[in-house]
Design brief:
Elements: E1 4-11, E2 17-20, H1 29-37, E3 40-42, E4 48-50, E5 53-59, E6 68-71, H2 78-90, E7 98-103, E8 110-115, E9 120-124, E10 130-134, E11 155-160, E12 163-169, H3 175-186, E13 193-199, E14 206-212, E15 217-220, H4 225-236, E16 242-250, E17 253-262, E18 265-274, E19 276-277, E20 281-284
Parallel strand pairs: 2-5, 6-7, 12-13
Antiparallel strand pairs: 1-2, 1-19, 1-20, 3-4, 5-6, 7-8, 8-9, 9-18, 10-11, 11-12, 13-14, 14-15, 16-17, 17-18
Length: 285
């Protein structure tokens, strides 16, 4: 490809994300992403890592508009969104405590509370468009797919702008099961991105797996912010009004969410987790 770009290696709760700072044309996203995902970099702690996703910075907001960024597949990503807000906050002196950003896959701007000293970013997430139960038969799930040998429970499908997730309980987190369900979903609806959050009745552990259509990637992710939001909404679906707090321990990090319900409806979801950023890194691709 023969060009030089600058990137930052971000680690939002283990969901390693490369932020491309150099302006590039959207038609180059797929090739640049493919090349970057094949490379290894060092994060803020000097640990060698491979990235799970790439985002492209469009504006730092100094032009009077919202700071804006796009994911490589134009999907929505909560971890990348709160990381981007964290990055923007650090461009100011003193750092901003609150940042509103515009991101791909999300119609409305999002606001994040940032704590650079504590390496934390808490973002108000977009609310789901729909939450519905899906029968095991519709998902081609049987007792052999479960972790406990019992009949599978209903899945909960959470539709969101830019990405949708299936929340499963006590199902084995395998690529074969993910692909089987993903193919079933895409035979009925086309989505920019789709994830399955494999959760377990007796723990707060969750394994996130996400497919992005336009770059044709599937990753067992270190953590997933939109998936955490979807799981929180799924678990709060039948709960009473009030404030509900959830903690999800994921393979490489922990994310916390707070769901507020009023009059039987979810009216607010906040997502909190750690963020670290490397220095700028020049890359030849």
């Amino acid at each position: 490809m023969g060009r030089n770009i600058n990137i930052i290696v971000a680690n939002p709760a283990g969901n390693i994300t490369l932020m491309v700072l150099t302006p590039v044309d959207r038609k180059e996203y797929r090739e640049i992403t493919s090349r970057l995902l094949a490379m290894k970099f060092r994060d803020a702690e000097g640990v060698e890592v491979s990235a799970e996703q790439v985002c492209f910075i469009l504006s730092d907001g100094k032009d009077g508009q919202y700071p804006s960024m796009e994911m490589s597949g134009l999907e929505f990503c909560g971890n990348a969104s709160r990381t981007f807000a964290y990055y923007i906050a650090g461009l100011h002196n003193p750092p901003l405590e609150s940042v509103t950003v515009k991101v791909s896959g999300c119609v409305l701007p999002l606001t994040s509370a940032t704590d650079l000293c504590g390496n934390k970013s808490c973002i108000t997430m977009p609310l789901p468009d729909n939450v519905e139960e899906i029968s095991p038969e519709m998902l081609s799930l049987t007792a052999s797919d479960t972790t406990d040998g019992n009949n599978p429970q209903k899945g909960i499908f959470v539709a969101m702008d830019g990405i949708s997730h299936m929340i499963l309980r006590n199902i084995k987190a395998t690529e074969e099961i993910f692909t089987r369900i993903k193919d079933r979903i895409y035979s009925n609806i086309d989505l920019p991105a789709f994830g399955i959050m494999f959760t377990y009745t007796d723990s707060e552990n969750m394994t996130p797996v996400v497919y992005v259509r336009d770059v044709d990637t599937t990753y067992f992710e270190g953590s997933c912010a939109s998936g955490t939001t979807a799981a929180s909404c799924a678990f709060a679906y039948g709960a009473s009004d009030g404030i509900h707090h959830f903690v999800f321990h994921q393979p490489e990090g922990t994310l916390e969410s707070t769901v507020t319900k009023e009059n039987g409806q979810i009216v607010k979801v906040e997502l909190d987790g750690s963020v670290t950023l490397s220095a700028e890194i020049p890359v030849s691709i």
